[in-house]
Amino acid sequence: MTHPAADSGGVTLTSALRPLLELASVQADVFRGRSRENESTRTFGGLFAAQALAAAGRTVTDDRRAHSLHVVFLRPGTVGSTTEYSVDRLRDGRGFSSRRVVATQDSGEILQASVSFHVGEDGYEHTPGPPAVPGPDELPPAKSWFTAAGDELDGWYNIYLGSHPVDFRFVGEPPPLAARRGQPSTGLRVWIRASDPLGDDPVVHASAMTYASDLFLLASALLPHGQVFGTGSVVGASLDHSVWFHRPFRADEWLLFDKGSLWAGSGRGLTKGSVFDRSGQLVASVVQEGLLRLTPATAPHQHR
Asked: CA-to-CA distance for 49 and 71, rounded, in angstroms?
């Protein structure tokens, strides 16, 4: 399967997603992942989660597909550092395989993950319908929104979104534009696909979708307050991240991510996402809790 290079509104993407998911083998059940090109001063948790899934997938047979991933982020990663993923083969049963993954950098463990794989079986089926939204071909490239808004937001795009090896199509006005007007919102819908063809390995597609699932997810907890990351008013970090994979899909074809927040309080936010393919099938569900720490200038009370 091929498609043209992702159109990011006149900017050529300098990195691809598939090489980030092709881990180097260090020794038995230990793998090494690479960093993104043009990475900012902060690492991206979605990459670590995706690589953890890719590492676990290297230890199971081809007849088993990932059906759940549960990640706990222990400490921030370091930009440019080598990350090693050690896989513990917990169980291989008749229908399920369970794996534990620990990601380590020089600073120590940065992530622990539990991954489960299933052979797939016949059973009852039901699924919610997708939201009624325009298709990706009917929507402008993501960067065009920011370029039209002026230099400040065009720079915001380059810092926070431009280095990701995926293509976006926002359904409606992107959050930073609405936040500039103090406009609250209840959720975010965006079409996303990998910027490069990913081949046919289901684990690669599951890992690529995991990468994309972290984009905008914690930020959706700020939408009801008309806020956005990057303004200096709030610091955010992923605490844990879970993905359930419901049916096969391709992450190098357009997927609709419908994201919103279930709750916020105590300096944390709980967010969710539903992922649909172009036929309207629900292919995955995502839940994440993250830190939402107000900066001293905006926080009424500070705790140390």
From this structure: 7
106 is catalytic: no
Catalytic status, residue 288: yes
* Candidate list 196, 214, 252, 258, residue with the active-site label: 214
- Catalytic residue selected from 35, 227, 274, 288: 288
Max Cα-Cα span within the chain: 57
Q: What is the pLDDT of residues 22-35, one digit of tens each?
A: 999 999 999 999 98
If we measure between CA atoms, which residue out of 74, 104, 101, 68 comes closest to residue 210? 68
Threshold 0.85, pTM exceeds: yes
CA distances from 160 to 102, 109, 146, 298 (A): 27, 25, 12, 22
Q: Higher pLDDT residue, 101 or 161?
A: 101
C-alpha 169/C-alpha 277 separation (Å) is 14
Contacts of 184 (CB under 8 A, 6+ apart): 223, 224, 225, 226
**What pLDDT, on the 0 to 100 scale, is given for residue 15?**
64
To the query of whether residue 112 is one of the catalytic residues in this protein, the response is no
Active-site hit among 35, 213, 227, 238 = 238
Q: Could you read off the pLDDT of 252-282 as tens digits, one per residue?
A: 999 999 999 999 999 999 999 999 999 999 9
236-258 confidence digits (pLDDT tens) = 999 999 999 999 999 999 999 99
